[in-house]
């Protein structure tokens, strides 16, 4: 089987590529990635010479290029993760999210439909999405697969649009598709513009840890390797046309999470407890900041026999160890344009 994985040089994509390359030596894995600021081939150094791994540099927005690689490689299946993925960047530049997340997805759907036309048997277009498409919850309740879409940021609006296109291609053309919507991921290789790696990096460097608003917003956190095993389960065992919610049953208020992370950092770096908490700095809130996400993962747990493998404390501890051990990775991704981004985002 030839599988195209898009966005495989990014945070989640690199863990999915590694899992598939090592667990399924009989599959040929093709990682297609534009290598934006968020894509980094250093994430895949350990498997880049595997005989079943192939890298293609390219942009999913370029329809001609996408059609040509489908014709050339005749992929059997697609796992689509390539996306612009950061809410704060979507507030500054929404159109970039429309190009990659909406047009890029439709280009891939068109190429798959054309390549597989007349015989959809044995083929699959698997679209990886987010729980943010469901909108924001109050104190109670959880997102299920039946929750109506209510995206509230340009990022989640673009992901919701791409989800709709994927389902529309199933209904209209019979394209075999699956969709999963996952909660916030954390773990190794996470670009330090997102909360957890940004906080680890800043604590490491004795810099303020910015918490938006009062830190009251709640997210459900899942260790990235557990998301990769969930994607494996949906890819192999999920029903065609179905949607699966994926989450960690692990809700945290941002401020409580940051305090826990500060304590873990103090313990690992030998600082007296309480040292890192002094770096916590409350800053201007994000515009339209969703209050709470919580996801009901009972469908994937019961139907596909999947569950998270680590507790949050274990996952965070492994994550901190990884960032402390991989200084060079952190140095490379935080040099150059990262500094400009940080200045614009946090010096207001
Ligand atoms: P990421 O930003 O770390 O990686 C995205 C990857 O896509 C990068 O390697 C980038 O180079 C590539 N890419 C971007 N634009 C491209 C284009 N036009 N053509 C080809 N490649 C392009 O993102 P991530 O956090 O790994 O998220 C992966 C997917 O999972 C996304 O679809 C995201 O919406 C979804 N998701 C993420 C989370 C999360 O917490 N990070 C949670 C649920 C779902
Ligand atoms: P983020 O990692 O950007 O993920 P998302 O917005 O997709 O949930 O942010 C997670 C939470 O942390 C969100 O409520 C915003 C908040 N946040 C901060 O408080 N400070 C920060 O510097 C960042 C990046 C996020």
Topology readout:
Layout lengths: L1 E5 L4 H13 L4 E6 L19 E5 L5 H11 L3 E4 L6 H6 L1 H22 L8 E7 L23 H20 L3 E6 L1 E3 L8 H10 L4 E4 L5 E6 H14 L5 E4 L4 E3 H16 L10 E4 L14 H7 L7 H14 L1 H7 L3 H10 L2
Parallel strand pairs: 1-2, 1-4, 2-3, 4-5, 5-6, 6-10, 7-9, 8-12
Antiparallel strand pairs: 9-11
The protein binds nicotinamide-adenine-dinucleotide and thymidine-5'-diphosphate.
How would you characterize this protein structure?
It is a single chain. It contains 12 helices and 12 strands. The chain has 348 residues and is an alpha/beta fold. The protein has a domain at 2-186 and 221-248 and 294-310 and 338-346: 3-Layer(aba) Sandwich (Rossmann fold), CATH 3.40.50. Strands 3-2-1-4-5-6-10 form a 7-stranded parallel β-sheet, sandwiched between helices. α1 (11-23) links the parallel β1 (2-6) and β2 (28-33). The protein starts with a strand and ends with a helix. The chain binds nicotinamide-adenine-dinucleotide and thymidine-5'-diphosphate.
